[in-house]
Amino acid sequence: MSSETAKEFEGYARDWVKLAREPNTPPEVREQLLQMAREWMHCAMEAENDAISAACAPAAKKASPPSQ
Fold first, then answer.
1. 33 lies in a domain?
2. Is residue 26 part of a domain?
3. What is the pTM (predicted TM-score) of this model?
4. Which residues contact residue 45 at a Cβ distance below 8 angstroms, ignoring those fewer than 6 apart?
5. Is 66 within a domain?
6. What integer pLDDT is reported at residue 55 of this predicted model?
């Protein structure tokens, strides 16, 4: 995944938080909305980690010791 994907997922999380903050949102629904926001943030972090790993893979390959 890419850093752009991570940003998109963060945007989804923000949208869920905005819905949870609506004044007429019942408490039980608010908790569900915040849980969805947490899940999207988890996905965003995973996507960012994947993007970093993919970007570092060529450098890591060059830095690894030669096979014997």
1. yes
2. yes
3. 0.74
4. 6
5. no
6. 73
